[in-house]
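Regression test case RT-17, inverse folding.

Input:
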């Protein structure tokens, strides 16, 4: 059962379709997107659909669909990923650990990661992609490419293991 609620700014109506809660079965996510003091959406209680809906409403309320072409969203994802990478550029592993542990830098890392995820969800919305399906399909493909008993503890690309298997099969067939 859907219950109509406000989005935190007191506005309700048909354009606020994603600002809802399932009565008696879900936490109340009726607060505004940025009001984490009143309302949080922890991973354990939040579905991809919840996030996709919020991203879609955010974009729609700003009339940004016109700018969210697949090309531009893909470019924005790459740019935001570069901004995340820049936080760790030219740092040793120990420096990266210290940077990531500092409250100010940790918040910057969180913000950049959120930007990337929001843009990925926007792209999925634009393309009509089922995110869970494509992630699970890719994980299955990676499970085949990277068998745990073969790759455990190694960071090699899958082509390394293909050539290694080919070398093994050639040496056993001679």
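Golden output:
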């Amino acid at each position: 059962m859907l219950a109509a609620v406000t989005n935190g700014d007191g506005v309700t109506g048909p354009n606020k379709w994603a600002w809802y809660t399932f009565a008696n079965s879900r936490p109340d996510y009726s607060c505004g997107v940025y009001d984490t003091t009143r309302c949080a959406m922890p991973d354990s209680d939040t579905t991809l659909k919840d996030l996709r809906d919020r991203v879609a409403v955010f974009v729609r309320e700003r009339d940004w669909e016109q700018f969210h072409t697949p090309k531009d969203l893909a470019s924005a994802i790459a740019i935001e990923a570069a901004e995340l990478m820049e936080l760790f550029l030219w740092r040793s592993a120990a420096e990266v650990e210290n940077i990531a542990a500092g409250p100010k830098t940790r918040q910057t890392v969180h913000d950049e990661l959120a930007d990337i995820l929001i843009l990925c969800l926007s792209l999925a919305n634009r393309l009509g992609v089922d995110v869970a399906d494509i992630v699970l399909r890719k994980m299955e493909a990676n499970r085949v490419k990277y068998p745990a008993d073969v790759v455990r503890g190694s960071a090699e690309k899958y082509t390394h293991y293909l050539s290694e298997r080919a070398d093994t099969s050639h040496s056993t067939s001679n």
